[in-house]
Specification:
- The protein has 744 residues and is an alpha/beta fold.
- The protein has 4 domains: 248 residues, TIM Barrel; 192 residues, Glycoside hydrolase family 3 C-terminal domain (Rossmann fold, 3-Layer(aba) Sandwich); 113 residues, Sandwich (Immunoglobulin-like), CATH 2.60.40; 68 residues, no CATH class.
- It has 23 helices and 26 strands.
- The strands form 7 sheets. A 6-stranded mixed sheet has the order 10-16-15-14-11-13, with helices on both faces.
- Strand 3, helix 4 and strand 4 form a beta-alpha-beta unit.
- Helix 1 crosses helix 10, helix 3 runs parallel beside helix 4 and helix 12 runs parallel beside helix 16.
- It starts with 10 loop residues before the first helix and ends in a 6-residue tail after the last helix.
- The relative contact order is 0.10.
- It binds beta-D-glucopyranose.
- The site of beta-D-glucopyranose has 8 residues, from loops.
- Beta-D-glucopyranose binds next to loops.
Length: 744
């Protein structure tokens, strides 16, 4: 519906409203009371710049809570917590007069090399979508709009402003779209940010299919589409495609081009009206929600600390080395520059000026009565390696346990460029090996935004704790987990591969000559590793706690087999002596399908918190999409058998059940290119074909031989009819088809 002010706006005013006023705000029309609206980064904190605007995190911004990055939040598998973080971000936005916060990033981690993986939740679209939706709900609960980004198929930084992601529709629909779709449908973000890249040759900012047909037409998006900063190549084509707001300002260039295009008839004014209406209606809604809600600040640092621990993934813990006893025991040696100079966020547009910063060394010292000593062990720039290492090794001789803080220095991963390898710096690995020769009790705590090769780390360390880039309270959260004040609750939202060459996009990454081919298609993350039976370092969904859980009495119930839906139930029992959390994961597979499908796919999950000895019956629902794949005709569920696996990771399946769905068969129409086999498999085609063969007499007899049928299976009807001596091929086939497609 058109916004009521549309009729009163001049063409020039309308064109001005779809292009920013400056770096972070939209244009006002004072005479009609249309305010300027502030949009700012996001997503891990509010980057409200006082002066010196930029989209690269270079200039300073007002202090704001630096929450854990999406790499860490993704590992929480905890929508409720994400909603709380979102709400806190909304409150801080309100307090800094920000109307739209630019986040969340729900792009899929296609390769561990993407420089921006720390800003994205997962390699799995269901997990990314559930977390994205919760984050948006939280932010918007206080009247601040979210901006779901970067739509779509933006999975690398290399050549990000020009590259064409060459990706087939099934892959888009099953892997790269669902997190956007789910977030739009569950939480209606105020805005969706289109990405820089092209999709199959067309810029996202000018892609009508993407921005209008799919986003609005199919998913029912009601907000406005904003460009990524500088993503608009042609402002007129952008409006025509369904882009509603160009950011940042392009001066008078954008508005003037739009005015000219309307005047000379190359852009319909009604399309501009749609864009203006979308922007104004959304801004009205935000202002009304702001007037109706109060933004009450809580203890956001404490929330950031809780969230960082919830995203911490305990990868190994031999002989229960963790948690450390805080009261008794010998000296604890803390090693690693990261312990006193935390790396807790990534570089680029999400860079926050934190309100405070906890370092792990101080937090550890404050958490224990045991003696704590520190050695930097290495310098970020690699200098003075031998001296730093030998001092640390010397100190390790006196210590009962060594806690080594390792990770990726700032320069190794960032927005704007991709990584070229997944290795930890060699000086850190040499230090670790030397420490191991001196002391057998080593805990490694990691700070990195995307996965790293952990081969040498797991060899040397008895316990490995992945803290990701955990925000401003990451240091104290690490201490909380190390001493067991809280559980490490995280589960991997991305597989940790053994080596880079095992990763699904390896040969296609990062493309060249302007194109990147998504050749691995739907086989992304565990869908690839599990289908191709590759060994991995740590599987998707993996993470240890300080207690263990048992799964019993798993059932999968199908109420009505003619409907694609099932209910999964399982009893989860905390078998240990400590309270803990577990994430129950449900994977669905379709062993016999009309198309290739991954071995299994995450279709539901639930996080449970249980006291020692406590049990809970966990119930998870599977809807139609849990069984569907994208076919030429849209989402399709085939009748037949499905496996439903209930587990604690994609490789730790505790129960497998098989169900049969008796949903209606949807057969594609036959045509002259349909094969002998396809005619036989078609409910009406088979009878028509058999009659045709009978009518052929002896010539048709050979088609009845089972061996011959195998050989002829792939022959199109066109050839079969021609081989049978017919000259009017089209006429003959059309005759056969009247008895087939009509009845279908
Ligand atoms: C990034 C966006 C960000 C925008 C504004 C762009 O370069 O891709 O994620 O929101 O800048 O800073």
């Amino acid at each position: 519906m058109a916004h009521p002010l549309i009729a009163q706006l001049t063409l020039e005013e309308k064109a001005s409203l779809v292009s920013g006023a400056a770096f972070w705000n939209t244009r006002a029309v004072d005479r009609l009371g249309i305010p300027s609206i502030v949009l700012t980064d996001g997503p891990h904190g509010v980057r409200m710049q006082a002066e010196g605007a930029d989209h690269l995190g270079i200039n300073n911004s007002h202090p704001a809570t630096a929450f854990p990055t999406a790499a860490s939040l993704g590992s929480t598998w905890d929508p409720e917590l994400l909603q709380q973080v979102g709400q806190a971000l909304g409150v801080e936005s309100r307090n800094l007069n920000v109307d739209v916060l630019l986040g969340p990033g729900v792009n899929i981690k296609r390769s561990p090399l993407c420089g921006r993986n720390f800003e994205y939740f997962s390699e799995d679209p269901l997990l990314a979508g559930e977390l994205g939706a919760a984050w948006v709900t939280g932010v918007q609960s206080v009247g601040v709009g979210a901006s779901l980004k970067h739509y779509a198929a933006n999975n690398q930084e290399t050549d990000r402003m020009r590259i064409s992601s060459e990706v087939d529709e099934r892959t888009l629909r099953e892997i790269y779209f669902p997190a956007f779709e789910r977030t739009v449908q569950k939480s209606q973000p105020a805005t969706v940010m289109c990405s820089y890249n092209r999709i199959n040759g067309v810029f996202a900012s000018q892609n009508r299919w993407l921005l209008t047909d799919v986003l609005r037409g199919e998913w029912g998006f009601q907000g406005y589409v904003v460009s990524d900063w500088g993503a608009v190549a042609d402002p007129v084509a952008a409006v025509a495609a369904g882009l509603d707001l160009e950011m940042p300002s392009s001066g008078e260039r954008g508005p003037q081009a739009i005015v000219d295009a309307v005047r000379n008839g190359t852009l319909e004014e009604s399309l501009l009206d749609v864009a203006v209406s979308n922007v104004l209606t959304t801004h009205d809604r935000l202002k009304a929600a702001q007037a109706a809600t109060e933004a009450v600040a809580g203890d956001h640092h404490a929330l950031a600390r809780r969230a960082a621990a919830a995203g911490a993934v305990l990868l190994t813990n031999e002989d229960n080395l963790l948690p450390l006893d805080s009261a008794d025991g010998g000296q604890i040696l803390v090693v690693g520059e990261f312990a006193r100079t935390p790396r807790y966020q990534g570089a680029g547009s999400s860079h926050i000026n934190p309100t405070q910063l906890d370092d792990a060394l101080a937090a550890i010292t404050a958490s224990t009565q045991r003696a704590v000593t520190f050695e930097p062990g290495f310098a970020f720039d690699g200098s003075d390696e031998e001296n730093l290492r030998s001092a640390a090794v010397e100190a390790a001789r006196q210590a009962e346990v060594v806690v080594a803080f390792l990770g990726l220095p700032d320069a190794e991963e960032s927005e704007g460029f991709d990584r070229t390898h997944i290795d930890l710096p060699a000086n850190q690995l040499r230090l670790l090996a030397a420490l191991r020769e001196t002391n057998a009790k080593i805990v490694v705590v990691l700070s990195n935004g995307a996965v790293v090769d952990l081969g040498e780390v797991t060899q040397a360390a008895s316990a490995v704790l992945e803290m990701w880039l955990g925000g401003q309270a990451s240091g104290s959260a690490a201490a909380d987990v190390l001493f067991g004040t809280v559980e490490p609750e995280g589960r991997l939202a991305e597989t940790i591969p053994l080596t880079l060459s095992d990763t699904p996009a390896f040969v296609n990454w990062p493309g060249n000559q302007g194109k990147v081919h998504y050749g691995e298609r739907i086989y992304v993350g565990y869908r690839w590793y599990d289908t191709t039976r590759r060994e991995v370092a740590f599987p998707f969904g993996h993470g240890l706690g300080y207690t263990t859980f048992e799964y019993t009495d798993a059932t999968v119930t199908v109420a009505d087999a003619s409907v694609a839906a099932a209910v999964v139930e399982v009893t989860v029992t905390n078998q240990g002596t400590r309270t803990g959390t577990d994430v129950v994961q449900v994977y669905v597979g379709d062993p016999v399908a009309g198309v290739d499908r991954p071995q299994h796919e995450l279709r539901a999950f639930a996080k449970v918190r249980l006291n020692p000895g406590e049990s809970q019956r966990v119930r998870l629902e599977l809807g139609e999409r849990a069984f569907a794949y994208w076919s030429k005709a849209g989402w399709l569920v085939e009748p037949g058998e499905y496996t439903v696996e209930i587990g604690a990771s994609s490789r730790d399946i505790r129960a497998t059940r098989s169900i049969t769905l008796d949903v209606p068969v949807s057969t594609p129409d036959l045509d002259k290119e349909s094969t002998f086999e396809e005619w036989l498999a078609h409910p009406q085609g088979t009878d028509v074909l058999e009659k045709f063969l009978t009518d052929l007499g002896p010539a048709g007899a050979m088609f009845r031989d089972p061996e011959a049928r195998k050989l002829l299976g792939s022959m199109p009807m066109r050839s079969l009819v021609s081989f049978s001596g017919y000259t009017d091929i089209d006429g003959t086939i059309n005759g056969l088809l009247t008895g087939v497609n009509k009845a279908n």
